[in-house]
Every structure is written in structure tokens, then in C-alpha cells.
Design brief:
Immunoglobulin-like, eight-stranded mixed β-sheet, seven-stranded mixed β-sheet, 21 strands, disordered N terminus
Length: 310
């Protein structure tokens, strides 16, 4: 009796996490042929064609998830009952982007997770901007296609139909370049944070969220050219008239010290793929120490000791 009660309790705990999907007849099948839109925005950002996609069918009237399938970059076979749907196809398995709220076309949302505690500590130790906003990893490019499709009832020998969807990225890309630098030879590494970005993107609605966040991204140190360059992705720059956008650089010198610089780039973040030139002059001082573990060994001094034998 105790075993039966335990099994029933376990089943009840599992029920809230289950997602019930309609069961269709096997002969009600369509072939989804997915064509990616490799237009200039994808080529300019050097986006590789992903291997896997999710294909979600949402009821036309309800907006609720009816069926979902994994497909490849060229599409694949899916099973779906006749009817009218909103087909939503999106990249599956990126490094940083996660998806939640899949059950509804209104709530399905792409987001990235918070950065590590050490990176967060570095930012909050020096910056006074947007300290209450979450600090997150920048998103990977997320390819999304949204189409309205009608699946006809099949008759006779017809067992398949063709659907077509063009996918394009919902992520914007900006780049930085800093050239007015003195003492760049002392910089060991650098990273940056940009404020006033959209925390997530509602891919079913095709719009960025209003929730603000700060995005972390790495910076490349080019000592030969004397520049610092970086590329960062975002779900969107918030357009609230009262908000300001700052970029905050943290540079670590060869002595282990950190140097921080903040700039207001509100007027410079104007369009995706735009190169934001940082014209402020920055002077990185020569480090005072090595910043590492430098053990020293005293000269060898001999000492004669009589060792009794026998």
C-alpha cells in the first residue's frame, strides 16, 4: 500500500511539468522545406548556418502551441493535422541564447543568462551606471522565421505538402574601435560592458522587451595597430528618451592592476553594423609591479657538519 501511495505522489509531482501535445494520424504529414535568408545582414555578420532548428505550430485563433518538431537547416518532415497555423521556426542549440515561454506565441522569449560572479564584481567595483540592471552575456545570432500556413486535408495518394520559410537574425550587431591610446603595450587584457540594452526578445511577437540590462563582451587588444576593438550583439538598444547608453571598459595591465573608463555613447548607437568610434584620449600608466608570483632564492651557503659513523 505504501508503495502505491508513493508512486501516486511521484506521478502528481510530474504532472505540472508535463506538456500535453495533440496526437495525429501518421498519414497526416507535411514536409517542411526551410530556406534560410542569407541576405547581406547574415553575410556581413559572418553567421554560420546552424545545424538544428525548432519548428513550432501555433493555433491561428488561440496562439497556443499545437505541435513542435526538430528540423535541420534544410527542413524536414513534420506531422500536423489539417488547419491554419502560425509557423515559428528558430535556431536551436546556440551557446548563450535560451528560450522560455514556448507554450504561447505571445510569451515565447529568447534571453541570455547572467554573467559569472567574478565579472559582475569587477563591473560593480568600478561603475556607477545601471547597477540594479542584470548583467548578462551577449546573445548569439538567432535565426527566426514566422509564416502563416494553411494545411489542407489530404485525399487520395497525396501524403505531403511543401511549406517554405525564410529565416533571418533578430539580433543586432555593433562594433567599437578605440585609437587614441597611450600605453597600450602595458595592457594584458580588456573587457567591456554596455548599458541600456533589451534583456530579451519575444520572437513570436517580433519585438524586444522593455526590461533593461547591461551586456558584457570581450575586447581585442591589438598592440601592433595600437587599437582596442570589439563586436557586441544585442536584442536591441532601448529607445526610452530618458535613458542613456554607456560603455564601460576595464583594462588589466601586465602588473595585475585594473583601469576603468566610462563613455556616454547615447548619440553614437544609431544603427546596427555601425562602427562606434571612441575618440576620447586614454592613457594607461606603466605598471608599478609585475603582478605575479616572483619567488627569490638566497645564495647557497655551505656549512660543514661532522656526521658520526659507526
Amino acid at each position: 500500500m505504501r508503495k502505491a501511495v508513493t508512486s501516486m505522489a511521484a506521478l502528481l509531482l510530474l504532472l505540472p511539468s508535463c506538456r500535453f501535445m495533440p496526437i495525429y494520424e501518421k498519414d497526416k504529414s507535411v514536409k517542411l522545406e526551410l530556406a534560410l535568408d542569407l541576405s547581406s545582414d547574415l553575410e556581413d555578420n559572418a553567421i554560420a548556418v546552424p545545424e538544428h532548428f525548432m519548428a513550432n505550430f501555433y493555433g491561428w485563433e488561440t496562439g497556443m502551441l499545437s505541435n513542435t518538431h526538430f528540423v535541420g537547416s534544410e527542413g524536414g518532415d513534420v506531422t500536423i493535422a489539417p488547419g491554419t497555423y502560425t509557423l515559428l521556426v528558430y535556431t536551436f542549440g546556440t551557446e548563450y541564447v535560451q528560450i522560455r515561454g514556448e507554450s504561447s506565441l505571445e510569451t515565447i522569449e529568447a534571453f541570455t543568462s547572467d554573467i559569472t560572479a567574478s565579472k559582475m564584481k569587477s563591473y560593480r567595483r568600478f561603475s556607477t551606471k545601471a547597477l540594479d540592471d542584470p548583467i548578462v552575456y551577449m546573445p548569439d545570432h538567432l535565426l527566426v522565421a514566422k509564416e502563416e500556413v494553411t494545411v489542407q486535408e489530404f485525399t487520395g495518394e497525396i501524403r505531403a505538402a511543401s511549406l517554405h520559410a525564410d529565416a533571418s537574425t533578430v539580433v543586432q550587431t555593433f562594433s567599437f574601435e578605440m585609437t587614441q591610446l597611450t600605453g597600450l603595450e602595458y595592457v594584458e587584457s580588456a573587457e567591456a560592458f554596455v548599458t541600456n540594452q533589451s534583456r530579451s526578445y519575444f520572437i513570436g511577437r517580433g519585438e524586444a522587451s522593455d526590461e533593461p540590462c547591461t551586456i558584457w563582451f570581450p575586447v581585442e587588444v591589438n598592440r601592433e595597430k595600437g587599437t582596442l576593438t570589439a563586436v557586441f550583439n544585442t536584442f536591441g538598444v532601448r529607445t526610452d528618451k530618458e535613458s542613456e547608453t554607456y560603455v564601460h571598459f576595464i583594462m588589466r595591465d601586465t602588473g595585475g592592476d585594473e583601469h576603468n573608463y566610462s563613455m556616454d555613447i547615447t548619440e553614437k548607437v544609431v544603427a546596427p553594423r555601425h562602427v562606434i568610434e571612441i575618440e576620447e584620449e586614454i592613457d594607461i600608466p606603466e605598471p608599478e609591479g609585475t603582478g605575479g608570483f616572483s619567488p627569490a632564492v638566497n645564495p647557497w651557503q655551505g656549512e660543514e657538519i661532522d656526521v658520526p659513523i659507526g
